[in-house]
Design brief:
5-stranded parallel beta sheet; 21% strand
Length: 236
């Protein structure tokens, strides 16, 4: 049974969401104070964290920044009355899996929770040799495991959100080729409902994760054209 931590000051909303989630078979813990929620998320094991950003801009994302700084890798979804495109981009760049602008439709909320939990896979500390029964393929020095939505480089799993996995897999499959932002949205977000600024946030987040792992792979932006993944084989 997936465990969800819900950090929400509005007790009425929290109980409504908790009831809806429990009806779908999830185990839910409600906490109303950010400090308590951070402590709980770090010290206990959850599959998903939902929290209410109670202020606009970066100030409202303190829970997110603190949890990521402490090394929490589970999906985090932001809920808020204040989310605009700029705040959504910041949240995604800071490591949020998704966001909801209040008020939101509970059915859509449940569907997104189901999708996030279905796609999310915990980072494994087990050696790659233990997964020889799973079909995988390599592009350059990257090892791609489609069933687990994992991509490894230099023997380490890159912590990717579901859409980041799809984006990196797509760019790796077409390395050295330039794609416009519209091309990326059409390929990764088939429903076309995502805003360009949010898509750029995903590209920026993925670029940073690659930069943290050396200069073997980098996402370059071609001004007024688009993005291209470069594999620097000679620099390894």
């Amino acid at each position: 049974m997936p465990k969800i931590l819900l950090i929400e000051q509005d007790i009425t909303l929290a109980e409504l969401l908790s009831y809806s989630l429990k009806q779908k078979g999830y185990e839910v813990r409600i906490l109303s104070r950010n400090a308590d929620g951070i402590r709980e998320a770090v010290n206990q094991q959850y599959d998903l964290v939902l929290f209410d950003a109670q202020a606009p801009h970066l100030a409202g994302l303190q829970v997110l920044t603190t949890l990521r700084r402490k090394g929490l890798s589970v999906p985090i979804i932001v809920m808020s009355n204040f989310i605009d495109e700029g705040m959504a981009v910041k949240a995604l760049r800071l490591g949020a899996e998704d966001y909801f602008n209040k008020p939101f439709n509970v059915s859509v909320f449940l569907a997104k929770i189901e999708t996030v939990l279905r796609h999310y896979k915990r980072e494994h500390t087990v050696s790659l040799q233990l997964h020889t029964d799973e079909q995988a393929f390599c592009i350059g020095k990257f090892e791609i495991y489609p069933e687990r939505l994992e991509i490894w480089l230099y023997g380490e799993n890159i912590p990717l959100r579901a859409k980041e996995f799809e984006l990196l897999r797509f760019l790796l499959s077409h390395a050295q080729k330039v794609f416009t932002l519209d091309d990326i949205i059409d390929t990764i977000w088939s429903d076309k409902k995502i805003k360009p600024g949010v898509a750029r946030g995903y590209v920026s987040s993925l670029r940073k994760k690659l930069e943290q792992r050396g200069n073997y792979a980098e996402i370059q932006q071609r001004k007024n054209i688009g993005y291209m993944l470069i594999l620097n084989e000679r620099n390894v």
